[in-house]
Amino acid sequence: MDFLIKVLAFVVVIGVLVIIHELGHYLVARWCGVKVLRFSVGLGKVIWSRRFGQDQTEWAVSLVPLGGYVKMLDARESDAGEISESDAAREFTRQSVWKRIAIVAAGPLANFLLAIALFAALYSYGIPEPVSQVRVNDGGLAEIAGIKSGDTVTAVNGEPVSAWSEMRWKLLQSAIAGQPARIELFRIDARGDRVSSEITLGLGDIPADDLDSHLLDRLGLELARPPAILGQIIPGGPAELAGLQPGDHILRINGEPVPDGVAFVERLQSAPGKLLQIEGLRSGQPFSLAVTPQAERVGERTVGRIRAQVDTSAATTIVKASLPEAIARATRKTWDTSVMTVTMLGKMLIGEASLKNITGPITIADYAGQTARIGLISFLSFMAFISISLGVMNLLPIPVLDGGHLLYYSVELFSGRPVSERVGALAQRAGIGLLVVLMAVAMFNDIARLIW
User: How far is 429 from 434, CA to CA, in rounded Å?
Assistant: First the structure.
């Protein structure tokens, strides 16, 4: 079932993004008066097709579901044959260079517009997000800078943040730029007063390989969770037999601190059938007692449970905006993500970032399945980010990609004549070779993630 969800989610994501991308090419080609022969979702052999419209454009589904294309009337194609006089003016290469640029650029632009539309819709609807309250691990850069567990971050580099994802995004931008982050936060002191402060967090020495998924680990920051306070006690379970009561605040297990409910549950699960000494507070008074988690089989492993409810969910906030503000935020997020993607690609090119950051269809399918299980909001957010990545990748100046064609047309604009067929053919072969290498690296990384 899990595999099926991943496959279906992957097909939906890739299918929607390819259709939107190719629709961009198709609509602008029609607007420029170019005749479109085929609109294909997928690559390779056509497995289904129908013809519609005055031009009898073939709408097709092809065998390999990892792309698509719009085939226009083009005299350079081997199967173009003799072009009639009525169609001559609608042939692609006879269009002005500006029209050709518009047609080619329309695909990536459509992906960026889709991302903006998805983000804007999500911001308008309201996105539930964990608040930007942190837990600080010992010895991390955050602790050294003076950040403490329970602190709530309110701004990074002067830009307000209220959600965990916003804080992480701003820190990631600073880390990629190799600049310190100026963090504004508040904490509640022993008297219950709110105390605000500003802390500078150094990010310049973080290795490039840790800039993405491992950034917060490197900083020693985690999402703050509620304290380990017991809720309902199940009758007859280990918790009741040991004397634990609802409202008990667990502070230590076997003398080791328990920072929150998640840590408490993890400690119990890792000790099935073992006697644990619990210390905590009950109505403000300290207590100590022993409990033995009962062993239960969960899947392929055995875990310990004491039959007591513990809240492990982080406090959340709703990130919501009016439609104009949502569109502005969505546009800014799309731009920032695009710039960050290009920056990371540049770092990989010069060796400052690992090629391990390149991912392929297996990883995309895995994340698509995960976000689909979480909910529609997470799935649509993931689709928006992949749409941005697709737009950026297609704009890279690699022959066979849209960016390669745009490079040819830019040369034509400055030189006054198109790139020669011989140069174009050589560049085409080089571009295909480069894409094969990139796909091989992506597939290797995908398989390595599954194995290790």
Answer: 9
Instruction: Express each pLDDT in 43-93 by its tens digit.
Output: 888 999 999 888 889 999 998 877 889 999 988 776 666 777 777 888 888
* 263 within 8 A of 294, measured Cβ to Cβ: no
Q: How is 105-117 classified by DSSP, letter by letter?
A: HHHHHHHHHHHHH
Residues of the chain with CATH 2.30.42.10: 127-222+314-319, 230-298
Cβ burial of 388 (10 Å; 0-12, 13-18, 19+) is: buried
- The CATH label, of 2.30.42.10, 3.40.50.740, 3.90.1750.10, 3.30.1330.10, for the domain at 230-298 is 2.30.42.10
**Side-chain-side CA neighbours of residue 65 (13 Å):** 14
Assigned token pair, 318: 């709703």
Q: What is the structure's pLDDT at 115?
A: 96
Q: Which of 22, 129, 166, 222 is catalytic?
A: 22
Distance CA 67, CA 78 (A): 22
Predicted local distance difference test score (pLDDT) of residue 451: 66
Using the 8-state DSSP alphabet, how is residue 353 labeled? S
| C-alpha–C-alpha distance, residues 84 and 276, integer Å | 86
* Terminal-residue alpha carbon distance, the chain: 23
Q: Tokens for 57, please give them.
A: 């454009």
The low-confidence residues of the chain, meaning pLDDT below 70, are 1-2, 78-81, 190, 204-213, 351-355, 357, 446, 449-452
**pTM, two decimal places:** 0.80
For residue 147, the SS3 value is coil
Catalytic (active site) residue 166: no
